[in-house]
Amino acid sequence: MSLESIPLSYYLILSAILFGIGLAGVLLRKNAVTILLSVEIMLNAANLNLVAFSRYITPAAASGQIFALFVMAIAAAEVAVGLALVLTIYRNVKSVNLDEFNLFKW
Amino acid sequence: MVDALAPFVTTVTPWIGHVMSLILLLPVASFLILVVFGKKMGERSSYVAISAVAASFLLSIIAVLFVMGGGRAELSFTWLSVGDFHPTFGLLLDPLSAMMLIVVTLVSMLVQIFSVGYMHGDKRIGWFFACLSMFTASMLLVVYSPNFAETYIAWEGVGVFSYLLIGFWFEKRSASQAAKKAFMVTRVGDLGFAIGLILLYVVAGTLDMNKIFGMDLQAPLAALIAILIFCGAVGKSAQFPLHVWLPDAMEGPTPVSALIHAATMVAAGVYLVARSYPLFEMGPVSLEVVAIIGTITAFIAASIALTATDIKRVLAYSTVSQLGYMMMGLGVGAFAAGMFHLFTHAFFKALLFLGAGSVIHAVHSQEIHDMGGLGPRMKITSLTFIIGGLALAGVPPFSGFWSKDEILLGAYTSGHTAIFWVGILTALLTAFYTFRLIFIVFFGKPRGHHVDHVHESPPVMSVPLIILGTLALVAGMVGSPYLGHFFQVFITNSHEVEHANMFVMGLSIAVAITGIFAAWLKYGTRLLPSGVISKDNPIYKLLVNKYYFDELYYYVLIKPTHAIAKYVLSFDQKIIDGAVNGVAWVSTKVGSGLRQIQTGYVQNYALYMLAGLIVLIIWSFKILGVY
Amino acid sequence: MEWLQQVNWFVLAPELIIFSFAIIVLVGELFLSANAKRSLGVVTLIGLIASLASVAGIWNIETTQFNGMFSVDLTANILKAILLVTTSLMVLGALKSRFSMGEGEFFSLILFSVLGTMFMASSADLIMLFIALELTVLPAYVLTAGRRSARSSEAALKYFLLGIVASVILLYGMTLLFGLTGQTNFIAIAKELAKQKIDATLAVAMLMIIVGLGFKVAAVPFHFWAPDVYEGSPVPVATYLAAGPKAGGFAAIIHLFPVALASVKPAWAMVFAALAVLSMTVGNFVALAQNQIRRLLGYSAIAHTGYLLIGLAVADQIGYSSMIFYFFVYSLAALGAFLVVLATTERGIGESVTDFAGLHKRAPMVAFAMAVFLFSLVGLPPLAGFMGKLFLFSAAVKSNLIWLAVVAVLNSVVSFGYYVTVIRQMYLAPPVTDKAMPVSAPLYLSIMLIVAAIIVLGVYPTAFLSIINL
């Protein structure tokens, strides 16, 4: 069974499911690191979209795949910044639980 | 129609454009510098202000020479464009404005030099010079303005800065009261002015003078608008019945009185009428109004001046009276004569005020009965003051004679006989009160405590007096028959000038001499018994109380206004304030409620964002009609 | 290396200058002595001004580079210039400030963020836009966390988490748009979309992109980060964020929506109108209930995003131009207000509104400047804010969005309520102490320059409008 025999919509549905899982993680989990990981899942959902579209819609051009590569690079940068921020807040508050970060409101 | 005011010729030669803008911008720059650094610079502020205005004066001379060579220039640029509304902002250089440029910058320069001595040691001197600079700039803008909207803005600027200058010594209660009075009274006139401009805009669809003067408005309508505009002039030029603010404005520093209340601001009203002359000519009734108001003002003010005992107030009333003459001149159709009188008056009245300032500086009092016998002790001051007095009284060959004579001639030849005779009578009064002042202040025996220590003012004060004295002596020549009525020709751009009338000239010389002689009899000698004018005389009482105008206004206007204001205030407090507070209360409550969505929990925010996204998606489906 | 010659490096000069200076400043942080590092602020300022000069050099050039990824046009240039001017003024004001991080770190992060914003303003391609956006916000997250305090790091973490969620949603929207058209270039996308029927996916993609960019410009309901970040970040950082970076968001919207998404214009115009109303109302009303000056200014910023979005709701050239003018006017005033807060906090004055009590006795010119900024934000003549609102609201009226203009005017009236509280404190409340409050010379200069600009733009807006060819 070749790759082409799987219809595009399967990829898109998978991507949507991944996006949803990531989003649920962002909304429901309390640990800042877990949320970072959830965001990574969402980013990968987007990447999956990009490569799938690239393969099915513009097989001749590589722009989608290039886009995906850039996204990966940016994701790495984001994680680096994110973990650094988690680390600083852990130093200051001694917690990574989002419910305990409540200095600013109203 | 006066030729000079025929639709402006728009020729802009680049260099003259720069000169024109620099004349205006130098004082503005001086203002900006002094606002920021004035405090630090202290006394040195005067260097900035004086060098700016001196440069403006030199450039004005260039501008005048350019105009004498037949040049006219208009700079204009669109200020902004919102839809169909394209207000423009411009500078106009023609004989009328060129003449005023010279007057304003010259007097302003001399006054500022004089102020260096007069204001020496004042701790807010930087602010004083900043205000003088900006006042000068506003006045220049009034002079330059080719459209009424711009005139109005500049006009209000003049008002604001004169308010600040009159109330400069705001610690003195009377000074801040006087500033307030000046501001409020002129506001009454400006209200009429503003209504006139709105009406003009509705009728003509533009406030550009050039376009308006080219139109053919119906006479009654034009007269109505002109009279409304004249209301503004009545306020600023202290004409009857709004003349009451000017004498009180003498609370300001004396150089300010010389600048504002002699040469420039009060002349702005006259200038406005002159500038809008074609509009007045479209509705000739309005000119009659101008003439009558001017005549009444001239007479009333001169008669009040007979009994005033404060040196600056005497001069203030004489200013009001002379402004009345100018209006009279414009009203009877002697356009050039009115402007000529503005020109000469600016110099001799600034001279008289600065002379008074010099005297006050020496004697530390404004009461003429504290002075006396100052002549030998203050030679320059007294000599120049007497020159100014002769000019004011209208004695040939001093400048005031030529211009006043022209006005009276205008009234005589245009058939305004009553106005002519009142003018002659006023000339008599003028000569009398002027020399009453001179004989009391400079001759006779010294009175008061300070007189023994009196000495001449420093050169920085006396030099401007000498310059102005020279001008008061010779400035009239430019409009005299000997120089072929050069001034009138320049202003009106036509060679049809009134020829001298020996009857009018002789009469005005006669009344001037008579007035001076009477004053000499009464105050210079002891020939007349001091009881010849009884203080119980009802006329004397009427004059001392300034025709009870202040009292009249107090009971007719101020008291009822206060009563109404009180009533409105209580209404305001109960109803309006209640409503406003209610709205504010509700808004704050709404705000307090809305702020609750910022819970502090970051995941709530993410959820709100998502909810927002979903709602917007559904909504845009509806807009686009998909699903 | 043929492609190297095909690129017109000249039109990239502004970005290249900023990039080189960012590296120089960063390297300087590594190798310079503590004393010499003080001069890094001046180096940054020179870089910003040099970049501004090069923007002026390419002012009227219209071109695209890198196969249409990078577009140079007047809108981009104007917004870059605004960004550079405001950032220069901010750097000038902060020259003598104490940073809780190294000078080099601070200034190079600012420069990288500026670089990202400039690329955003010039991006004509989805890939470019996404990378530029990330380059803008990543340094901003780090800057926000600059102070070693619970508040600073909490603000940064919240900003970061919301920011990446918004970025991911934006990215997902972009992938959908790419899937619909097979293109990443805005113009190519527009061509493809013109051939297609409008379907739901397009609407979803469009809205997801709006979330990402709406987050950037702090439009309600994507605004939650703004008050926290404005309040919690170090003051110089808040000052930077208040003024410049939104330029990138608005530039991206102006480049992306009218071009690539022209076929669904009615939808996005209405969505922006709705966001405008929401932002104005929430921002102004919640600001009424604030008593912390930076938080108040944060909500005021949200409200002003609302006013600015009117220009996008109008969705024509007049609307965009008015928006750009108002953006300039607004960012000057907001920047000025934050610089005043910087001046007061540097002298140990608190950040509560009541801490401004009697400021005019202690620092008359600074209090006057603050009053000018706040009155300009309200939109009182003759200040620039009035002209900005006049243009913006009249653009709304012209395109039959009278209801929107009415809402905006009512909102301006409401906004008077909270700005005037600050002014009342400064002028009517008695000061705690009569001691004069000194202000460092560069900060004072920066504040006064802004005051002058606001007055000049208010009195004679044509000076600016003619430069931007409005």
Report on the structure:
The complex is a heterotrimer of chains A (106), B (627) and C (470). Chain A has helices at 8-28, 32-56, 63-93. Chain A contains three helices and no strands. Chain A is mainly α. Chain A is 73% helix and 0% strand. The radius of gyration of chain A is 18 Å and the shape is elongated. In chain A, α1 (8-28) runs antiparallel to α2. Chain A has one domain (3-100): Helix Hairpins (Orthogonal Bundle). Chain B has 627 residues and is an all-alpha fold. Chain B contains 24 helices and two strands. Chain B has a two-stranded antiparallel ribbon. In chain B, α2 (45-68) runs parallel beside α4 (125-144), α8 (219-236) runs parallel beside α13 and α16 (379-393) packs parallel to α19. The longest helix of chain B has 46 residues, at 549-594. The N and C termini of chain B lie far apart (75 Å). In chain B, 53% of the residues are buried. With 470 residues, chain C is mainly α. Chain C has a domain at 264-470. Helix content of chain C is 76%, strand content 1%. Chain C has 22 helices and two strands. In chain C, a hairpin with a 4-residue loop joins β1 (63-65) and β2 (70-72). The mean pLDDT of chain C is 89.
Which labels suit this protein?
heterotrimer; B: 627 residues; mainly alpha; two-stranded antiparallel ribbon; 24 helices; 2 strands; 72% helix; disordered N terminus; C: 470 residues; 76% helix; globular
Write the topology of this structure.
The complex is a heterotrimer of chains A (106), B (627) and C (470).
Chain A: H1 8-28, H2 32-56, H3 63-93
Helix pairs in contact in A: 1-2, 2-3
Chain B: H1 14-41, H2 45-68, E1 73-78, E2 88-93, H3 95-118, H4 125-144, H5 148-166, H6 173-204, H7 209-213, H8 219-236, H9 245-248, H10 254-263, H11 265-275, H12 277-282, H13 285-305, H14 311-331, H15 335-363, H16 379-393, H17 399-413, H18 417-442, H19 459-474, H20 486-492, H21 502-524, H22 538-544, H23 549-594, H24 602-624
Antiparallel strand pairs in B: 1-2
Chain C: H1 2-6, H2 13-31, H3 34-37, H4 40-57, E1 63-65, E2 70-72, H5 74-93, H6 103-122, H7 126-144, H8 150-181, H9 186-195, H10 200-217, H11 225-232, H12 235-243, H13 246-260, H14 265-288, H15 293-314, H16 317-346, H17 359-362, H18 364-378, H19 384-398, H20 402-428, H21 441-459, H22 462-467
Helix pairs in contact in C: 2-4, 2-6, 4-5, 4-6, 5-6, 5-12, 5-13, 5-16, 5-21, 6-7, 6-13, 7-8, 8-9, 8-10, 8-11, 9-13, 10-13, 11-12, 11-15, 12-16, 14-15, 14-20, 15-16, 15-19, 15-20, 16-18, 16-19, 16-21, 18-20, 18-21, 19-20, 19-21
